[in-house]
Design goal:
Layout lengths: L4 E11 L10 E12 L4 E5 L6 H9 L6 E6 L2 E2 L10 E4 L11 H11 L4 H14 L15 H13 L5 E5 L7 H18 L2 E6 L2 H7 L2 E6 L2 E6 L1 H6 L4 H6 L4 E10 L3 E6 L3 E6 L7 E8 L5 E3 L8 E11 L3 E8 L8 E7 L13 E5 L6 E7 L1
């Protein structure tokens, strides 16, 4: 089955406005991007400012054209087609509502451009309002609505034309934190209910983790990693992915020993860490490992087995439902290895680990992810 949206080897280049001596005079906003998005999927283009995510969205919408490569929607090459011939619709960060029109007229605008009969326009407008929980507000003007309500109107206007693909360019960024969290859940529930392909652009990793079926994490015009939320969080393939999605401990670890079953490396060059042999290629002489803070086990009693260390709690940072701890592995002194850990916060009466405590640490081999290798 063909993908609903496909970018084939898409490049987009712009002349650099003021190249420095020796700098490439061409800025590559997209650099040979390949991407397939399935029908009914919620896919998020995630990444820092300038990574190419909005440019990729503009390729799909037809607001911009590739320097090279092709764009397909529902199996058809639409590379040269204008936006109105692509059966896609877009929701913008600014909502882009007409201030002089009522809510109902804003929603009906696209249908009017399609010359849909008046009674059918009204029926579909009222249906769209009900879909976004705004029934009864069709006579209001945009300035009589809250930010969340205006966002819903923008969604209704985009959905009323029944596009095959809905494109969303950071549509929640103007909302306050609490409303933004609520809209994330509403938006995902709406997409599930409708079964429409959603392509969502954001720089906010929390938004991406909450809503996405898959995430395309972009960096410098390329897709650094494409996968499910679990793939990117628990199985990052590069240092960029490991550090962009969530928090992590990163350590370069020289390989100290290996046998058929296990590889021993030196955490921070000082402490032995054993991993399954399958996680490290035979040619590797040094690896970069990622260990999520919540996977660092801590208690006052000694652990048994491999990858057990003693440590001192050097910092304790209150984060509401959890405490962030900075642990210094023993022995201390110059070059001491520091681990960041997260532990549940059950209240002041139940906290058992504090700054200055001596604790025992265990890291399960399955919680160590190799993100880079160096060989001779």
């Amino acid at each position: 089955m063909s993908a609903m949206v496909e970018l084939r080897d898409v490049c987009k280049s712009f002349p650099h406005p003021s190249p420095k001596p020796g700098q490439d005079p061409v800025f590559r906003a997209l650099d040979h991007v390949h991407l397939e998005i399935q029908g009914g999927e919620f896919l998020t283009l995630l990444g820092p400012s300038g990574c190419g995510k909005t440019t990729a969205l503009r390729m799909i919408s037809g607001l911009d054209t590739p320097t090279s490569g092709q764009v397909f929607i529902d199996g058809h090459d639409v590379t040269g087609l204008p936006p109105y011939r692509r059966n896609v619709n877009q929701v913008f960060q600014s909502y882009a509502l007409f201030p002089h029109l009522t809510v109902g007229d804003n929603i009906e605008f696209g249908l009017e451009m399609q010359k849909v009969e008046a009674s059918e326009r009204k029926r579909r407008m009222l249906e769209a309002l009900d879909l976004v929980s705004l029934s009864g507000l069709e006579s209001r003007k945009p300035d009589q609505l809250s930010g969340g309500q205006r966002q819903r109107v923008a969604l209704a206007r985009a959905l009323v034309c029944r596009p095959k693909v809905l494109l969303l360019d950071e549509p929640l960024s103007a909302l306050d934190a609490k409303l933004r969290q609520n809209m994330q859940i509403e938006l995902k529930n709406l997409q599930t209910k409708l079964g429409i392909t959603f392509v969502f652009v954001t720089h906010d990793q929390e938004e991406a983790l909450v809503m996405s079926d898959r995430i395309a994490l972009m960096n410098k015009g390329r897709i650094e990693q494409l996968g499910t939320v679990d793939d990117l969080y628990y199985r990052p393939k590069t240092q960029f992915v490991a550090t962009f999605i969530g928090e992590t401990n990163l350590f370069p670890c020289p390989v100290a020993n290996r046998n058929r079953d296990a590889v021993t490396v030196r955490l921070g060059g000082r402490h032995e860490l054993r991993l399954p042999a399958a996680q490290v290629s035979p040619a590797a002489r040094e690896i970069l490992v990622s260990i999520r803070p919540e996977k660092v086990q801590i208690q006052h009693q000694p652990f048994s087995g491999d990858n057990c260390f003693t440590a001192s709690v050097q910092e304790e940072i209150f984060k509401g439902p959890s405490d962030a701890l900075i642990l210094g592995l023993e022995p201390g002194g110059e070059g001491q290895v520091h681990l960041h850990s997260l532990v549940p916060n059950f209240g002041t009466d139940q906290q058992v680990i504090h700054r200055g405590d001596k604790v025992h640490v265990k890291i399960h081999p399955d919680d160590v992810v190799v993100v880079e290798e160096k060989s001779d």
